[in-house]
Design goal:
The structure holds 2 protein chains of 2 kinds. Chain A is mainly alpha-helical. Helices cover 73% and strands 0% of the residues of chain A. Among the domains of chain B are: 1-35 and 90-141 and 158-222, Tetratricopeptide repeat domain (Serine Threonine Protein Phosphatase 5, Tetratricopeptide repeat, Alpha Horseshoe); 370-429, Serine Threonine Protein Phosphatase 5, Tetratricopeptide repeat, CATH 1.25.40.10; 513-569, no CATH class. In chain B, helix 18 packs antiparallel against helix 19 and helix 23 (423-436) packs antiparallel against helix 24 (441-452). The chains are: A mainly alpha, B mainly alpha. Chains A and B meet through helix 7, helix 10, helix 14, helix 15 and helix 16 of A and helix 21 and helix 23 of B. Chain B: InterPro entries: APC8 (IPR007192), TPR-like_helical_dom_sf (IPR011990), TPR_rpt (IPR019734).
Chain lengths: 911, 579
């Protein structure tokens, strides 16, 4: 079948290649001269040589420059002899008036090649070594031409006509007044081009603004897009200019449509299979990186063209699938995915699976299943996804495709850990796969663990480095979030101690990041070649081509260095993505373990170094982490400002978490300002975001009810709050969400503290502390300790000493890593402790910490606590007899109290 | 009812005008209809009736229809609405004659060149039409020349742009006749501007309804019933032909059949209508009817190749090897390089189990016409037979991409995936095929089987599918049996009994016997016995006694048990109500 065996496309002669050949003829004429005619110096000659070298290297690029572009470049290369060069080029082309001339031309080309035994060559003779890059190029061209049938020659001939006509059309109108005033014409042409360029930049800018002012960092696709855009724009301008001359009306529909028509059949010369695959891969990366901020219709139109040109290139369907996936079009995505696999049988374009013997007969439909499963996962159909992935496991076991099996298992574990499935037993129980059926009696987490281990083992033995790395990261995530305990030995002897192990997390992360030094062993160079050659040409132009390229340099400021490295060692995007993910994971783990600075640092590292190559959802996560950090440590004003930026940037990302964070922040803010109604509303909305299926989106659900309990607590409805917290604890236990348990316990302690039942609160606080201890949640532990101390103090002032000791034990952690609220609470509590002792006299320390607390709380707009701090301050001042300060504190106190009582008066700035 | 005579006159004039403009296929179509009208007895000559000496079946058909259609009042046909257009004067007749001969010799560019300065509407049309055909010819050639490793390059008809410009200018000035409008519609359609194309074609057929080419272009643009209903067509008997064909394409077979029957009142001997009726009947799976029609057609028109692949499909389904080979031989001698002929030969080889050869002929058909839908589907079937799943999937997918409504290809895709052990994946395709043909029990059964596989094992879904299959009058009776068994498996004795009874009823009705029968009887006997309905149980048991084998012994023991229980009633009572 045609769809199964396909050879790489051949080297085809195109008009552009002929122009390069003409220039080569100039560079190395067959006549014996040390320096051919037009060149005035050896360096000039060499420069042309270098330029030609770059041209021949970039000949495998997917886009070929037009004659006009070539002439522009020549102008920069040729300096004072540019006119001569371009004249020669155009004259040579216009001398090709019949197919016979082409035949002669290629016969002449043969002459510039030296004989293979280059002994006979004289010193001062310029001879093209047939084995040099340039020589090879000429030979390939000649060979390709000789292979052409007469029809092929005719087609080449017509395309040359078109190629030249395009270049002429822009200057045609000036030719009318051509009285060998060359300089004038050139001047005019320059003007015209400048005009076109201006227009082009304008359009590009517009485009950027439209797409949310995202700097296009990714190098090559950007360049390519520019090329396409540029093509479009210049063409439109051209036709506009010409119509202007005739009828002086704005561009008519007809002319624009003809321009588009031309574009389809003339500007794209079909290239080899290999190049197109590489190009499509780049496009796929671009789609992933930019998410839906990339205009999907532009890609669509491009793919349409490509499909018209190459109906047997099935990868186009896959690209279309990706595109639809990112623009959240379920039906179209499904359709294209199925179409792609129907046509290609999974054997085209997947470099992750090395083509093994005998696959051509059976196809590789297990990959189709894998992709389909991941698609369902992305669109949020966990049960469907699980069904499909189970089938993928079964099929890949049947055809013993271990690679696919490893990937499928990884995808499955990812699915389970991200979404969670309530009724997994019913789904998995029916399956026949040994991996999943053993797992049917286990909890979701245990299943995730088994799947990950399985996948890791296979990936390791198959040397799939990327998969190994990402599995290690997933493992780290698992270790981070889930409590270790012996998996299958539930005897009386088995230790039932729950704990997390930061060391293993660290180990896994490190193993994951190990990839960087390792990946070079892999030989997936599909994209790299094409990319590099085009970049090569661009870099070469840079020193000369300032006017052409100046617009580009503005748009990318940061990370040019990294990009440079990128091209130099050519790290594939996927590798840098995984490494980036390891940094993000590091940040998350530090967040959990309670080191704010480390978390922030890692996030920043990620955002600066990997922001370009990351997928949009990862980038979003990094931004959100930073915003969260801002909210905790700098107050809401900054956080909301930052959120606004993030919103603009990421709202188009599907399954965006921006909304989630916004609701969280608004809830927090409303709670602090005492606007309980708003808080309740936010809380409800938050709960509404989660899926309604049981067992899915557990983390979100837990978060929502945690917040509900806190809102109730703030509304002083203690019994209800306690009820919610209790049921929440039960849920956490049911789904064995250990880490969440610790915070729920803390909340319960808090509720009892607030309701005045300090004795009841104590056991909860202690339990929370012990949970934190075994899970290494240092910051949470510090905060639990603070609550414990508060409870002690609540038992009576005679316990003040003990409470103070507890507090001082936790102080380093709180002050070093705690957020504004926690710090302020600690300060106020310290002051309270001191004040509870009637004999206490060192009022300076007390005032100091109170002042600190009130400042921080003001940033946080936490009226209740701020009022408390100010009240205490006023009391102390009163005691010290400092009336003025006392009055000041008292008025401040009053302000906060009124603000607290009338929360609606301050207009909610973000809601 | 429009009078046959006026119809005849209209068509005669139309043929003249159509062939004057070199619209040969439209003229051919009109000619077929012309001789399809029953001749007047007045000019009843033996040579005229040659086409009408049909088979007895057609006579029969004809006579029944006449009895239906004659009492009908003339509804829908408003005959006088469209007068025949007058021929405009061709300024230079001689040049036109030359151009026409060039055109007939397929020298299109030459023809258009001859007419370069002619301004009459007729000349303009012929010039543009010739130019269009020249472009099409070049396009086809180019497609073959430019074929690369990645498939065919995007060859386009290079005359389209200039043609569109000229025709739109003509249209704006009003200097365009209905033939020009037809060409304009075609050009617009090629350029992808479907709405404008439709509008232009509608205008064309409203002013000149006898151009079947325009109607069929219009029909290909009606992809949904909504579009079809939104067309503003004036009434004419040609519209009925159009509607019938459009209904057929939209899978509304019964509506289409009704239209054709109506039309047969006038065009009682039209081969075209016969063939179309056969097509519709084929879609309704009335194979016997189709066979009769085609036999008659072949008798009247022995060198016909059009639609004969459909006939071969019927012969294939009936496993009539000899007839199929006869047909294949006949079309082979008539015109071997027609996709239809290749398909027929392919079908023959397929029936003979020589799948490689069959594939070769289907490939040839596709070489002749890359968009020949049924060849793709049939080739897919062959690959399935050859266990080459990827190739089969590829072939089916191509069929689906040519016509997304081809339920056979969707079904084939599902089957192929099911074959390669991916039932869940296959389900999607079965769903697609059912979407396009919800009334076919085979599709529902295939889907149910998919759900029933041990990998998926969603029995509830399977039951739902089988129920649908039963509602669609499942002729093979798989669904009832399966329903009963599934219910039995799920322990729902009552439902199982109901379905077994229904199945039994069906088998009795069709006079079938077999293991299914025995199974049903055994189940029902035991079921009724356990539920203490001894009368029924005894009936079933005695029926089992007609068979030999282990079941007979079982029935005997059952009967014995029944008698025991019947006599020992009081003791049972004692057990149930211990005092």
């Amino acid at each position: 079948m045609a769809g199964l065996t396909r050879t790489a496309g051949a080297f085809a002669v195109t008009p552009h290649k002929i122009s390069v050949c003409i220039l080569l003829q100039l560079y190395a004429p067959s006549a014996q001269m040390s320096l051919p005619f037009p060149f005035s110096s050896v360096s000039q000659h060499n420069r042309l040589g270098l330029y030609l070298l770059s041209l021949t290297k970039s000949c495998d690029d997917i886009f070929e420059p037009k004659l006009e572009d070539l002439i522009n470049q020549l102008r920069e290369v040729g300096e004072d002899m540019d006119a001569w060069l371009t004249d020669h080029l155009t004259n040579r082309f216009s001398s090709l008036t019949s197919p016979d001339d082409l035949l002669n031309f290629f016969n002449d080309m043969r002459g510039i090649l030296g004989s293979l035994d280059s002994v006979a060559a004289q010193d001062d003779q310029i001879i093209l070594d047939p084995n040099s890059i340039l020589g090879m190029f000429v030979r390939r061209c000649i060979l390709a031409f000789n292979l052409l049938s007469f029809e092929g020659v005719c087609h080449l001939f017509t395309s040359i006509e078109v190629y030249c006509r395009e270049a002429h059309s822009s200057s045609a109108q000036y030719d009318a007044s051509n009285d060998n005033l060359e300089s004038l014409i050139q001047h005019d042409q320059m003007d015209m081009e400048k005009y076109i360029m201006d227009k082009a930049t304008e359009e590009i800018k517009l485009q950027k603004n439209a797409s949310g002012s995202i700097p296009f960092h990714l190098h090559t696709p950007e360049a390519l897009f520019k090329v396409t855009e540029g093509l479009l724009v210049t063409r439109k301008e051209k036709s506009r200019a010409s119509t202007k001359k005739i009828e002086a009306t704005p561009i008519t529909r007809a002319s624009s449509s003809t321009a588009d028509d031309n574009l389809v059949d003339e500007s794209l010369f079909l290239r080899t299979n290999y190049q197109i695959q590489g190009f499509l891969m780049e496009q796929a990366d671009a789609i992933e990186t930019h998410g839906s901020s990339l205009s999907s219709s532009s890609i669509e139109s491009f793919l349409q063209k490509l499909q018209n040109l190459a109906p047997e290139l099935h990868r186009v369907h896959f690209l279309r699938y990706l595109n639809k996936l990112h623009s959240d079009d379920y039906f179209a995505a499904l359709d294209n995915l199925l179409r792609y696999f129907d046509y290609s049988a999974g054997t085209e374009g997947f470099d992750l699976v090395p083509p093994s013997a005998g696959c051509s007969m059976n196809g590789r439909y297990e990959i189709a299943l894998l992709c389909l499963g991941m698609m369902h996962f992305r669109f949020g159909h966990p049960n469907l996804a699980l069904e499909v992935l189970t089938e993928a496991v079964r099929v890949s076991q049947q055809v013993s495709n271990d690679t696919c099996l490893a990937y499928t298992l990884a995808a499955m574990s990812n699915l389970l850990s991200e979404m969670g499935i309530a009724s997994t037993t019913s789904v998995l129980g029916s399956s026949y796969s040994p991996v999943t059926s053993t797992a049917s009696s286990l909890s979701v987490q245990q299943r995730v663990y088994i799947l990950l281990k399985e996948s890791l083992r296979r990936a390791d033995s198959l040397k799939l480095r990327r998969l190994v790395a990402s599995n290690h990261l997933a493992m780290a995530k698992f270790e981070l979030m889930h409590v270790q305990r012996p998996l299958l030995s539930f005897g009386p002897k088995a230790s039932m101690r729950h704990k997390t192990c930061p060391v293993s997390v660290c180990k896994e992360i490190r193993l994951g990041a190990h990839l960087l030094s390792d990946f070079s062993a892999e030989s997936s160079t599909m994209t790299i070649d094409g990319t590099l050659s085009s970049v090569w040409l661009k870099d070469l132009q840079k020193p000369w081509g300032q006017p052409v390229l100046s617009q580009e340099s503005g748009s990318r400021k940061s990370s040019t260095f990294f990009q440079f490295c990128d091209h130099l060692v050519s790290i594939p995007g996927s590798v840098s993505q995984i490494i980036g993910a390891s940094y993000l994971l590091r940040a998350t783990s530090w967040e959990l373990y309670g080191s704010a600075p480390m978390a922030r640092m890692n996030t920043l590292v990620y955002a600066t170094l990997f922001g370009d190559s990351s997928s949009s959802s990862d980038a979003e996560l990094a931004y959100l982490k930073l915003i969260q950090h801002l909210a905790l440590y700098k107050g809401y004003k900054d956080a909301f400002a930052a959120l606004k930026i993030a919103e603009e940037k990421f709202l188009t990302v599907s399954k965006s978490k921006v909304l989630l964070l916004k609701l969280q922040l608004l809830h927090e803010h409303a709670l602090h300002r005492g606007n309980l109604k708003l808080a309740q509303r936010m809380c409800n909305e938050l709960g509404g975001l989660a899926s309604t299926t049981m067992g899915v989106d557990m983390e979100q659900k837990v978060e929502a009810s945690l917040r509900e309990a806190r809102t109730l607590l703030a509304a002083k409805q203690y019994s209800q709050a306690a009820k919610v917290a209790h049921s929440l604890f039960c849920t956490c236990h049911k789904f064995s969400l250990q880490i969440e348990k610790a915070s729920v316990l803390l909340l319960l302690a808090e509720i009892h503290k607030k309701s005045g039942n300090a004795v009841l609160g104590l056991p909860y606080a202690l339990a929370s502390i012990s949970f934190c201890q075994s899970f290494n949640l240092d910051l949470l532990k510090a905060s639990a300790t603070l609550t414990l101390a508060e409870l002690w103090l609540g038992l009576g002032s005679n316990h003040a000493k003990r409470a103070l000791d507890l507090l001082h034990g936790a102080f380093p952690m709180i002050l070093g890593h705690g957020g504004l609220e926690l710090r302020a609470r600690a300060y106020i509590f310290e002051a309270n402790c001191y004040l509870s002792n009637p004999s206490f006299s060192d009022s300076d320390t007390v005032l100091d910490s109170l002042r600190q607390a009130s400042d921080e709380l003001q940033a946080l707009e936490y009226h209740e606590l701020a009022a408390e701090a100010l009240y205490l301050m006023a009391m102390v001042y009163d005691k010290l007899g400092q009336i003025e300060e006392r009055e000041e504190a008292a008025t401040m106190f009053k302000k906060h109290i009124t603000a607290l009582e009338n929360p609606q008066n301050e207009e909610p700035n973000m809601a | 009812m429009v009078s046959k005579e006026s119809c005849r006159n209209e068509i005669r004039a139309a043929i003249e005008q159509l062939s004057e403009r070199c619209l040969h296929s439209a003229a051919k179509w009109a000619g077929e209809q012309l001789v399809g009208i029953e001749q007047d007895p007045s000019n009843f000559t033996p040579s005229n009736t040659r086409f009408q000496r049909g088979s007895s079946s057609i006579r029969r058909r004809f006579s029944t229809h006449e009895s239906i259609s004659t009492p009908q009042p003339s509804v829908g046909f408003s005959h006088a609405a469209t007068p025949l257009p007058e021929e405009d004067e061709v300024t230079d007749c001689d040049l036109y004659y030359l151009a026409k001969s060039y055109f007939n010799c397929r020298e299109y560019r030459r023809a258009s060149h001859v007419l370069r300065d002619q301004m009459s509407k007729k000349s303009v049309f012929l010039r543009c039409y010739a130019l269009y055909l020249a472009g099409e010819k070049r396009k086809e050639e180019e497609m073959i020349e430019l074929e690369g490793s990645l498939g065919k390059s995007d060859a386009i008809n290079r005359e389209l742009v200039s043609l569109e410009r000229e025709l739109s200018a003509l249209k704006r000035t009003g200097a365009i006749d209905s033939f020009g409008l037809y060409l304009y519609g075609v050009v617009l359609k090629e350029k992808g501007n479907e709405t404008l194309a439709r509008a232009s074609l509608v205008e064309s057929v409203n002013s000149y309804p006898w151009n079947w080419n325009a109607w069929s272009e219009l029909q290909s643009l009606c992809t949904s019933i909504e579009i079809l209903n939104s067309l503003n067509l004036s009434n004419h008997w040609m519209k009925e032909f159009f509607l019938a064909s459009a209904y057929q394409e939209l899978r509304m077979h019964t509506e289409s059949l009704a239209k054709y029957e109506y039309l047969q009142g006038i065009f009682s001997f039209s081969n075209y209508i016969q063939a179309q009726t056969a097509k519709a009947q084929y879609s309704l799976r009335e194979f016997d009817q189709v066979e009769i029609i085609f036999e008659g057609l072949l008798r009247n028109d022995p060198y016909r190749v059009e639609d004969m692949d459909l006939y071969s499909n019927v012969l294939y389904a009936k496993e009539a090897c000899a007839a199929l080979s006869y047909l294949a031989h006949k079309v082979f001698l008539t015109d071997k390089y027609r996709p239809e002929s290749c398909c027929i030969i392919g079908n023959y080889y397929s029936l003979k189990g020589q799948h490689e050869k069959a594939v070769m002929y289907f490939r040839r058909a596709l070489k002749l016409n890359k968009k020949f839908l049924s060849a793709w589907t049939l080739m897919g079937h062959e690959y399935v037979e050859m266990k080459n799943t990827p190739a089969a999937i590829d072939a089916y997918r191509r069929a689906v991409d040519i016509n997304p409504c081809d339920y056979r290809a969707w079904y084939g895709l599902g089957q192929a995936y099911e074959m390669s052990g991916m039932p869940f994946y296959a389900l999607h395709y079965f769903r697609k095929s059912i979407f396009f043909l919800p009334n076919d029990s085979r599709l529902w059964i295939a889907m149910a089987k998919c759900y029933q596989t041990e990998q998926i094992y969603m029995l509830e879904e399977a039951i739902k599918c089988y129920k649908r299959a039963v509602n669609c009058t499942d002729t093979e009776g798989i669904a009832l049996n399966q329903l009963a068994k599934l219910h039995q498996k799920l322990g729902r004795e009552e439902e199982a009994a109901v379905y077994f009874e229904k199945d039994l009823e069906r088998m009795d009705g069709e006079g079938l016997e077999g293991p299914n029968m025995l199974e049903a009887l055994v189940f029902l006997a035991t079921h009724f016995k356990t539920h203490k309905k001894f009368e029924e149980a005894e009936v079933y048991c005695t029926r089992i006694l007609d068979y030999s084998g282990p079941e007979k012994e079982k029935a005997k023991s059952l009967l014995r048990g029944i008698r025991m229980e019947k006599t020992g009633f009081p003791s049972m009572d004692m057990e149930h109500f211990p005092l």
